[in-house]
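Limitations

Structures in this collection are predictions, not experimental determinations, and the ligand pose is part of the prediction. Treat each record accordingly. The example that follows, with adenosine monophosphate as the small molecule, is included so readers can see exactly what is and is not provided: the inputs are given verbatim, and the output is the predicted complex.
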Amino acid sequence: MAVTGLPPYDETNVFARILRGEIPCKKVYEDAYALAFHDINPQAPVHVLVIPKGAYVSSADFLQAAPDHEVAGFFRAVGAVARQLGLEAKGYRLLANMGPDSNQEVPHFHVHVFAGRPLGRMLP
Ligand code: AMP
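Predicted complex:
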């Protein structure tokens, strides 16, 4: 499943363990394509992570290797999370880190959803 030039998927990463139910999470949403839960170290009043159920190292891996229905299902789940949390009226920010320059820490693709206060412009 991994794309050439990217590291192989590490089945022991923390989000893989959450998906397998080996460690708990504060779940906010789940469907066939995605799981969403509160970040353990929130950077905003609302800080939720949305992860695909498939084994993808990063956005690069996911967007090259995942079949169209998984990509569509995942991003629809991101939208559903924001709607379910009532974030659309005031707005929210989506962020996905990929690779070393972004400081991606967990090697399972994930989208951060930030909200709950004015977030400023782009990067701090
Ligand atoms: P990134 O730097 O984009 O890889 O972000 C990884 C995020 O995962 C960070 O915001 C961490 O706080 C968060 N995180 C790490 N371990 C857990 C966990 N067990 N439950 C929830 N969030 C976590």
